[in-house]
Design goal:
Number of domains of chain A: 2
Number of strands of chain A: 2
Shape of chain A: elongated
CATH architecture of the largest domain in chain A: Orthogonal Bundle
Strand content of chain A: under 5%
Structural class of chain A: mainly alpha
Oligomer: homodimer
Helix content of chain A: 55-70%
Strand order of the largest sheet of chain A: 1-2
Chain lengths: 148, 148
DNA sequence: TCTATGGCTATAGTGACTATAGCTTTATGG
DNA sequence: CCATAAAGCTATAGTCACTATAGCCATAGA
């Protein structure tokens, strides 16, 4: 008895992992650090997940893929559980993160340019070279680039 | 006696740190992991560095600033100690690293675009919003972007 | 000689997982 | 109905490249 609905949506951790693309160990880790609430357990103490967990984990994965820190995600999740005034804070978090991403892009671009310079100075195989790459690394003065 | 030259170039770890912009703790860490050879010690067991160490540390710092992994730097340093055939391998390392940097830039650009979309959908403060940012994170289907 | 500053070692903490060891549970086929 | 293989469990340690702490010792300048 106690009919559980037409479709049994409950699944073990491996199925959730496969469905969301998050590794089993990582799911357990997210539970441990309080991102994912502890699910029900089977008689034999194994985790059993439902649709809600799958959705929450998808949220977490998406945010992590976007580079949000676990701590920021904790806040975003809290906001998503409190639909009222969520917007302002969520907006601030995204904007701050966007700023960080843009910073990182700018820094990587400047590294790209210097690496290009370094890597093309000596194209390898040349006997007379001893070695431009290593010299470039040794002598920062050659580079007009401020790694801050 | 035992004249040490016109100029005493020997310095303690703090001076080396200041000169190179690498923190004291990080210098000791580099020694521990075998990037920087153990220097001479004073009577009282304090590290005393010379020009060679400063140069090697500058090499390490520059390479780290460029995003080379400590392991890659170990190889580059080995190559720079073996001037003969160094070039090919150094070139390969730089080119591989340049590839990684370009990958990272591409991924960050696509994140930038999605974050822009997310952050501008709801500009904050709007009462009717509940909340576009959080919905965007919850529903990956909205995003035409493949985080791989 | 006193003292402020700096240096020493050893150990633990960071973030976000990942891996391992040594068990127990569950699903499936005979 | 039971054996077995696959999957799950906990607890702990390892990863990378540092960073921080505690508690002690050395050095330089007044």
């Amino acid at each position: 008895m106690a009919a559980t609905g037409r479709l049994e949506r409950v699944m073990p951790i491996g199925a959730l992992a496969e469905r969301t693309g998050v590794k089993v160990e990582t799911i357990r880790y997210y539970e441990q650090v309080g991102l994912l609430p502890p699910p029900e357990r089977s008689e034999g103490n194994q985790r059993r997940y439902g649709r809600r967990h799958a959705e929450r984990l998808a949220f977490i994965k998406h945010a992590r893929d976007l580079g949000f820190a676990v701590d920021a995600i904790r806040t975003l999740l809290r906001l998503s559980d409190t639909p009222g005034i969520a917007c302002d804070e969520a907006h601030a978090i995204s904007v701050a993160h966007l700023g960080e991403v843009r910073d990182k892009i700018a820094r990587l671009r400047s590294l790209e340019r210097e690496l290009e310079r370094i890597a093309t100075t000596c194209s390898g195989g040349v006997a007379a070279c001893d070695c431009a790459i290593i010299e470039a690394l040794a002598d920062h003065g050659q580079c007009n680039h401020d790694h801050h």
